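Quick start: read one record
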Amino acid sequence: MQSYISEIPTEFITKTLLFVMQITLCAIIFLFIEKLRPIQNINYSSKEKRSEFYLMMFNGIIIQPLLYFLLLMTFTATIKDLIPYQIFDAEIQSLPFIIQIFLALLLIDLKVYSRHRFTHNFMWRVHAVHHSAEDINWLTGWRLHPAEILADILITIPLLHILGFGGSGIATASFIFFVFNFFTHLNINLEYKGLLRYLVGSPNFHRWHHAKFEKDAFNKNFSVIFPFIDWIFGSFYHPQGQLPKEYGIYQRPNEIQVNQSLWGYLSYPFMNKVK
């Protein structure tokens, strides 16, 4: 326990630097891609986009590493002793690495689907921070309240470890999912035809999840990588060749709107619901 605690500062710095490197690489690649076939004309110097960037950095440099290592420390010191074995470790880790990654991605997306649907029904005030975005681009993928990140991390590490995934498999799948989440929020007109629409998520598929006025799209498309998860559970909505008219939250009369600032994002779940 003591030796692990002494390693936390180094691990924290390493994860923070890795996040900064990943974000820098994503910015270079995705900003270029978004210029190819943009759906919206986005002002990246607007208050909303600056606030999204500040929230992303706050979550990625402070919140996520801190929560990750606090949970990992707790998991190592207590929970792991209660569950001294991994259920399917021999079976999973004997598979080809690419199959391990696919299975890990499928489990992560099933986990995200469940958590995502849960937040829509029971944590909407927290998740509304994400849906308040009216200009959708790759930055929006990290527009999450810290409480939502906590709920996600609390499930991910124990789930994959208990099932039997090794550290390299978890790390690789997590990184792929991290990048793909940004991809599905890209400001680019891209959708697939035929069976592929149900197999792999696209920016157009996810944009229906952010639709503001089309009520048939409300509470739909919770998955990130595998849309067939939504199809199986009856939450798939992706009309061919169409896109929502606007994005954001369908505001009820007298309902408090999300203030487009870092403090506004962090404080919104704790504000009064109505004016």
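The chain has one domain: 2-196+249-270.
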